[in-house]
Design the sequence.
């Protein structure tokens, strides 16, 4: 006979691998950090969904703006584009929508669609799901880590922690979810 003790980290309890006799979660330190290959593979999966989000943004935001500013498209192709101030607003709006996707996924369950496919999860160093601030900051910094010749991501190849620069700055880590025995 054993007693089910309440978990200290309730949102993390479905992720925790339970032991045979005590039914207690394993410490977060026992999970392995995600390597560069898994992170990049999850990012490639996410790119397909991000492309769909960009197309939906174009349909819902850019197309009506085009119609409002210039009317119906003509056959002669004389459209010169939006004014620079509107281009900046559109880009900030698109960035906000893409960052919101990651924020929603990470706050709800710690995984984006690509991370689910590759069994990765974003957690705090304490083992809980990332906070609002950590999610927003990480979603804003991760593209910069990739844009700077990937140095921010290559950082995870260095021991001992094997974490990317944006993980370090935000106090989060990406771990590999253990396979669930069926």
Sequence:
């Amino acid at each position: 006979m054993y007693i089910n003790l309440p978990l200290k980290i309730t949102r993390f309890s479905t992720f925790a691998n339970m032991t045979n006799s005590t039914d207690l979660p394993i410490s977060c330190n026992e999970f392995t950090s995600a390597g560069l290959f898994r992170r990049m593979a999850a990012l490639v999966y996410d790119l397909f969904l991000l492309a769909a989000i960009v197309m939906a943004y174009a349909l819902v935001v850019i197309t009506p703006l085009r119609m409002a500013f210039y009317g119906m498209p003509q056959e002669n192709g004389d459209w010169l584009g939006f004014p620079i101030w509107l281009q900046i607003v559109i880009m900030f709006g698109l960035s906000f929508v893409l960052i919101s996707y990651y924020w929603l996924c990470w706050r709800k369950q710690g995984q984006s669609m690509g991370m689910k496919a590759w069994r990765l999860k974003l957690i705090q160093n304490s083992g809980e799901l990332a906070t609002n601030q950590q999610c927003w900051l990480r979603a804003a910094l991760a593209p910069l880590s990739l844009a700077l010749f990937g140095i921010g991501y290559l950082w995870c190849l260095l021991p001992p922690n094997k974490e990317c620069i944006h993980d370090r700055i935000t106090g989060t880590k990406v771990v590999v979810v253990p396979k669930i025995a069926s």
About this structure: Residues 1-26 have pLDDT under 50 and may be disordered. The chain has one domain: 28-72+81-176.
